[in-house]
């Protein structure tokens, strides 16, 4: 197969490790009540007014992948499996349309009629574009014959027509791919970003601070809002843990592939003998739900206040402004002490809590749909490094897609190079989804 496991996506296996590693750092075991609540949230939550998208996905790999290449649009449309898929959808569309036309106005078979109507409305745009594509391809074939005409004016006209047909064909193909790989509900969400220092002591904390700054710069580069919710410094200027609310068009869609373990290899500032150290830090990217899509019962919360800790002056030591919220059914905890106002800290802590619980529900739902996948699901475990920042060799390698870029310092600026990496990850993820649809990952 030309395309061999292009991307491994993190879509579940969450209950034991994934969301716990981000939300209750230091703990690797989920309690029974958390597993039970996850099952309740999965399609049965009475507090949610709508279900999750059936296409929810993120990318996460447990090991380097055997990548051949990213397929071009021409290569994708040349695959027999895609053409077979179009024929199958065309047949289903015609059959569904026949049932709808035959049973209109009849009382019998109302449930079947409803199902067939839904399929007709879903398949109609795809069928329209595939038929349009066939028409454009026929026009292109006709211009090819005109290129052999004896009349030079006719040949010149045929060249122009061929170029127009080629462009039209590519445009229609892109529209078809966008229908085959639709955006998921959470892609349109804002997000909560969490970074946590891992293995490596003070060096890991210094690297965590750099990565957090990189994402803040990336948000500014994209024109997104970046509101720091929590920021726990280390003794020498590093970062133990921090979280931020990121808001902007498709911010979650662009940032979701950053979730996982990031590894740095370099000579630390604290190293006196010039030895290269390896340190890690963990990134969690949580879609931020709206009040409409996700609500939490007040009776399920225990809200505690306390005095903030750390540097901050006289106010920190004299006012109970820090807020800690515990979600009783799951034990998930959210804290905030960034603001002087207890009310503002409570609002920020609730934002993080909602994102954690929503992500738990989202990943639990998707894990059920993908348990049969041969492409194994990642877990965001500490051993699952997704990217390495190698300073001596001045390279950044993303292990999920085998992509390497150079200039670590420029990458950490959080602009063009980080955007290039994210675009590549999204393209491979879309290709993986398409291969699943066509049954080529079985």
TrEMBL record:
Protein name from the UniProt record: Mitochondrial translation release factor 1 like
Listed SMART domains: PCRF
Stored PANTHER family: LD18447P, PEPTIDE CHAIN RELEASE FACTOR 1-LIKE, MITOCHONDRIAL
UniProt-recorded Gene Ontology molecular function terms: translation release factor activity
Pfam families the UniProt entry points to: PCRF, RF-1
Tree of life domain: Eukaryota
Residue ranges of domain Prokaryotic-type class I peptide chain release factors in the record: 307-323
GO cellular component: mitochondrion
InterPro entries, alphabetized: PCRF, Pep_chain_release_fac_I, Pep_chain_release_fac_I_sf, Prokaryotic/Mito_RF
Membrane spanning residue stretches: none
A GO BP entry: mitochondrial translational termination
Organism from which the protein derives: Salmo trutta
């Amino acid at each position: 197969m030309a395309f061999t496991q292009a991307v491994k996506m993190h879509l579940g296996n969450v209950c034991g490790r994934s969301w716990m590693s981000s939300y209750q750092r230091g703990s690797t075991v989920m309690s029974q009540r958390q597993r039970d609540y996850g099952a309740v949230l999965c399609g049965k939550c009475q507090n949610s007014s709508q279900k999750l998208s059936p296409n929810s996905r993120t990318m996460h790999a447990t090991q380097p992948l055997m990548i051949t290449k990213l397929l071009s649009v021409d290569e994708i449309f040349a695959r027999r499996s895609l053409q077979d898929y179009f024929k199958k959808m065309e047949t289903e569309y015609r059959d569904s349309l026949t049932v709808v036309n035959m049973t209109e106005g009849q009382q019998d078979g109302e449930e079947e009629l409803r199902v067939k109507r839904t399929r007709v409305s879903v398949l109609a745009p795809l069928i329209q574009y595939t038929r349009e594509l066939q028409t454009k391809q026929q026009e292109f074939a006709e211009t090819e014959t005109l290129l052999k005409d004896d009349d030079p004016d006719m040949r010149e006209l045929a060249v122009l027509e061929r170029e127009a047909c080629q462009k039209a064909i590519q445009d229609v193909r892109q529209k078809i791919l966008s229908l085959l790989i639709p955006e998921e509900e959470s892609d349109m969400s804002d997000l909560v970003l969490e970074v946590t220092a891992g293995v490596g002591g003070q060096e890991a904390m210094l690297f965590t601070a750099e990565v957090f700054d990189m994402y803040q710069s990336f948000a500014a580069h994209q024109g997104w809002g970046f509101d720091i919710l929590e920021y726990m410094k280390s003794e020498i200027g590093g970062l133990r843990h921090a979280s931020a609310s990121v808001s902007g068009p498709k911010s979650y869609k662009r940032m979701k592939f950053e979730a996982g373990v990031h590894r740095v290899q370099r000579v630390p500032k604290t190293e006196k003998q010039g030895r290269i150290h390896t340190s890690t830090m963990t990134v969690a990217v949580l879609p931020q739900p709206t009040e409409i899509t996700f609500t939490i019962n007040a009776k399920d919360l225990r809200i505690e206040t306390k005095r903030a800790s750390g540097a901050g002056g006289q106010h920190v030591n004299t006012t109970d402004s820090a807020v800690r919220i515990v979600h009783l059914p799951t034990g998930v905890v959210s804290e905030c002490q960034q603001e002087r106002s207890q009310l503002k800290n409570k609002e920020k802590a609730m934002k993080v809590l909602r994102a954690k619980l929503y992500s738990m529900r989202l990943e639990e739902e998707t894990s059920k749909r993908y348990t049969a996948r041969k492409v194994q699901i990642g877990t965001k475990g500490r051993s699952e490094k997704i990217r390495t920042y190698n300073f001596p060799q001045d390279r950044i390698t993303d292990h999920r897609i085998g992509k390497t870029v150079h200039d670590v310092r420029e990458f950490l600026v959080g602009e063009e190079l980080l955007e290039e990496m994210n675009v590549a990850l999204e393209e491979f993820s879309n290709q993986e989804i398409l291969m699943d649809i066509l049954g080529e990952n079985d």
